[in-house]
Amino acid sequence: MTVPAKGSSRERILARIRAAVQDAAEPPPVLRDYRDSHQPDDPARLLDLLAANLADYRAVVHRCTGAELPAVIGRILAERGSRTLLVPDGVPEDWLSGTAVERVRDHPPLAPDRLDAVDSVLTGCALAVAETGTIVLDAGPGQGRRALTLVPDHHLCVVRTADQVVASVPQALPRLDPSRPQTWISGPSATSDIELDRVEGVHGPRTLEVVLVG
């Protein structure tokens, strides 16, 4: 095969690559039989791992039953001193029966300065990944648009452990819709400068609290 002398650099490079591989044998098929999790199929151990990894990322973890959830949410907000709570559409009303704070809704959509003035935001999630201590949001019911969980300083997230906890990222991906706007959260937002001084709350909430509901 003759490599053309003219054309862009990109075209010349691609032509050389085609010439080099034109007689190469077909590559063997890629095997996909590797394990998709390093954890045993034990829901209790999986939940303990999720709680430990969330805490390792400096998230505050609470565990309760469904009946206890409203009181737990009310206690968390009271202890934090929250007076306003941003509530996305789709958050179950019974989650809020134990709270006495002012509820803020996102319709019409709130401007960034109004979101910044809210004390706390309460959401559900799409999934939680135990091996990485990650919460996944996809703007589904009870989660709201992405800005709602990136601007307020305190994010309180509820995870239904019976059907929203998976062991690993390979198990999570097939359950998520790639066309939806996903946010993967591993602990509160944080960054470090050149001297490794950690600063939290730069690109998202300074405090992440997760309630694991059994």
Q: What features would you highlight for this structure?
A:
single chain, 214 residues, alpha/beta, Rossmann fold, six-stranded parallel sheet, four-stranded mixed sheet, 22% strand
Our measurement of the CA-to-CA distance between the termini, rounded to an integer number of angstroms, reads 65 Å
Percent helix among the residues?
10-25%
Largest sheet: 6 strands, parallel
Could you tell me the strand content as a percent range?
15-25%
Can you list the strand order of the major beta sheet? 1-12-7-4-2-3
In the CATH scheme, what's the topology name?
Rossmann fold
**Name of the CATH class:** Alpha Beta
Structural description of this entry:
With 214 residues, this protein is α/β, with parallel strands linked by helices. The chain has one domain (38-213): Rossmann fold (3-Layer(aba) Sandwich). Helices cover 23% and strands 22% of the residues. It is built from five helices and twelve strands. The chain has helices at residues 9-21, 43-56, 69-80, 112-117, 169-172, and strands at 60-64, 84-86, 102-104, 120-123, 127-129, 134-137, 154-160, 165-166, 183-185, 190-192, 198-200, 207-213. The chain has a six-stranded parallel β-sheet with strand order 1-12-7-4-2-3, sandwiched between helices. A four-stranded mixed β-sheet has the order 8-5-6-9. A two-stranded antiparallel sheet has the order 10-11. Strand 5 (127-129) and strand 6 form a beta hairpin. The protein is globular and about 75 Å long. 30% of the residues are buried.
